[in-house]
């Protein structure tokens, strides 16, 4: 539904509920130098699984090692990749607020941690009252 204008109250209840714990872990890792093990992110992720195997743990730790590489690349370059698969997904609510909805939670947390002035995103649903805000978010 990318770019669709949708009326209703969807924006009052939308958002990535898991973003807060991801943002907290990212901030602890990159701003305070805490290890991934000590941020609690592994436990949080593993608690959502029905069965935890050694392969799950290894894959999870590998994912966060790769996230360290993403962080380093962004910190050095000061910018995100604009490839479609790397974009952060956001919707625009009735008051023009950006609402993160799924893809890119870790990248969004990294952008906040690095205080980046611009972040490339993929616009999802837009509330009709939020349309005037589109102009302020668009840049070249």
Task: State mean pLDDT (0 to 100 scale).
Answer: 88
Domain count: 1
Total strands = 3
Poorly predicted ranges (pLDDT <50, ≥5 residues)?
Answer: none
Strand order of the largest sheet: 2-1-3
Order of helices and strands: HHHHEEHEH
Radius of gyration: 17 Å
Terminal Cα span: 23 Å
Shape: globular
Described by strand count, sense and barrel closure, the largest sheet is: 3 strands, mixed
Helix content: 40-55%
- The count of helical stretches stands at 6
Strand content: 5-15%
Which class do the helix and strand fractions yield? mainly alpha
Condensed summary:
This protein is mostly helical and 140 residues long. It is built from six helices and three strands. It has one domain (10-137).
Detailed description of the structure:
The protein has 140 residues and is mainly α. It has one domain. It contains 6 helices and 3 strands. Strand 1 and strand 2 form a beta hairpin. The chain is globular.
Q: Helices, strands, pairings?
A:
Elements: H1 19-32, H2 36-39, H3 41-46, H4 54-77, E1 88-92, E2 98-100, H5 105-114, E3 121-126, H6 134-137
Parallel strand pairs: 1-3
Antiparallel strand pairs: 1-2
Helix pairs in contact: 1-5, 4-5
List keywords for this structure.
mainly alpha; single chain; three-stranded mixed beta sheet; 140 residues
